[in-house]
User: Fold Glycosyltransferase from Paenibacillus piri.
Amino acid sequence: MVTVSLCMIVKNEEDTIGQCLSSVAEAVDEIVIVDTGSTDRTESIVRTFTDNVFHFKWIDHFAAARNFAFRQATKDYILWLDADDILKEEDCSKLIALKQELDPSVDSVSMFYNYAFDEFGNPITRFRRNRLVKREKQFQWFGAIHEYLDVSGHIINSDITVTHCRIHNKSDRNLKIFQSMLLRGEKFSPRDLYYYANELFDHQKYAKAITYYNKFLATGKGWVEDEISSCSKLAECYHCLGNPDMELDSIFRSFRYDSPRAEFCCRLGYYFLNRSQYEAAVFWYKLATQLHRSDDQWGFTNPTCSTWLPHLQLCVCYDRLGQHEVAYEHNEKARSYRPNDPSILQNKAYLESVLNKS
Assistant:
């Protein structure tokens, strides 16, 4: 059976670190914590789980801190998490089982990351990350911000899920780091351009975000999933700025990089629905229901866009087309995913009254 070191970097995480470590402690053989300057109870909480606590002076460089943490590990494999991540009980059990059966020739194991959720706890942002890596390969982190782990070799995909449990609002820390890099005259890589645009987007600086998404796409050197994501963010920027023509162009721009994704089909459906072009909206929403992505695919996905949402919108479209029985069928499909959604239940009552009258 292989052994696992959990390596984390933390700062002022007293509200989440205990839950994180409790969720994974049973599955790992060593816990390594690198504190980058906590002033709260983080370290005292951590020491109830491990004595392997190290300090690293924060230099506005996430990769440097993570690489330092990785160098402290002593076990066969390294697992990394953030302080607001957890392993649910079933995923912790899966990790324990994986340790017992993992072929030592494996260099990295990817896991799902459920990053954001709707009000019913269903994931609305989901993607894969290399989470468990062989220590002797000395894989390195790169990037001052939105760092990435450069992994190669024998990589397998697992069905283990890491769950993000953010309780704090997004700060402007990352945005400030990027702005400091610009002031120092540092040349942005394509990856930097993309993530700086994301920070601008998150802070509702839509016009400037558009500039940097376009700069990123113009390089032609980005990861295809980031290029597709940029088209989605551009569409949202233009939507927020009240420019529907450029919003539509950004949606179709995504088709240059891959076949239509459910997320873009739903955007197109919404575009035509708002213009009372119900047949066109039906076409795109129907296509969205058929575009479930494989669990082995990487990149950001929103399961909402291929499950309940297009069915709910199809219900609206067919109701306005006077096809109430079809509208009811799609509402029931939406209800199978969200049985307690007030809007879906209201549709159910309304359509049943209409159908009973007819």
